[in-house]
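Usage

Read records sequentially. Each one opens with the input sequence:
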Amino acid sequence: MLARTVKHLVNVRILALVFVIFLSTEAQAEMFEWEGFSGEGTWVSVTADLSIAGDTLTIVLANTSAASLHPADVLGSFYFDISKEMSGVITRPTLTAFIATGELYVGVESGPDIAVDGVGPDDITSTSDPTWWIARDDMDAEQIPYLGLGIGTVGNSSLGDNNFPGLGGLAAGIYAGEITTNNLTTDPATPLVKDLATFTLTFETLSGFSIGSEVAFGFGTDPDSLHIVPVPGAVLLGLLGMGVAGMKLRKYA
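and closes with the structure output:
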């Protein structure tokens, strides 16, 4: 009888250990969506899919607007959070590798946009071109947009310490549709990403860390507008005159 009891307890402990390991490595996924008016009054819509598998975070950013008409309609930055709390102290993971891909196009006002290297994903990581996308794991979460991590292909100088150093123009920003306006016409040196981009971020460890419940979409280069999803009460975000009127916010878990 004693032997059976001991065997039963051992089996229970093994099952409990397996369950704990499963929980610590369980995949996470969040989807965020924002739609509203850009700084130029264009109706735009964007989505962000975040998923964790092991120590890797994958982010898919999509500009789902009907068409981008102005630089202010182009998605150029994205802020998010991954953290865990222990004994009242919030910590964030350390980034070790970053890869960004998307289809680069040269915008043509009077004709179809031209794929830079043919159809297929292009490397838009900052290591391949200094104006492409970079990632930061050291954002100041005490300053706008109050999130600890970010990826961007623009400077966002108006955000102070939460900018993207060394970046300036809108090259590799994410636009939608076919370009039909002169102010989005580009050349091979400064192409844009059409429709969506995929970002793969690898960390030292993501064990025990969780994706935060808020993100921020930045449009244009300064940015022209910044939209935090969700915003309690859909209040306006007053940031150096950046307008976010007409927002319609939704978040899907």
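Summary fields computed downstream for this record:
- The chain has one domain: 27-252.
- Helices lie at 2-25.
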